[in-house]
Amino acid sequence: MKKLYLSLVSLCVLVSSLSALSNLKLEPLWEFSLNKNGVPSYMVPYVWNMSQRSMAVHNDVLYINNMGNGNIAKVNTADGTTLGDVTTTLIANPNFWYKNCIAITDDGEAILGSSGTGSTYFIFTSCDLATASTTSLGNVTVNGMGRSDYFDIYGNRNTAEGGYIAFASNSNKVGYIPMANGVFGTPVLSGQIDAAVSSLTSALAIVKDENSFFYVFQNPKPKLFNKTDFTFVEMAGVDAAPSGTNSGGAYFKFKGKEYLIIAHGSFGAIRILDITAGLNKAEEVFITDDLGNSDKGKSPAITPICVDVQADHVKIFAMAAENGIVAYKFQDNSTVGMDDETSQAAYAYANNGILTVKANGGEKITVSDLSGRILYTGIASEAVTEISDINSGQIVIVRIGEVASKVKL
Question: In terms of C-beta density within 10 A (0-12 exposed, 13-18 middle, 19 or more buried), how is residue 28 classed?
Answer without folding.
Answer: middle
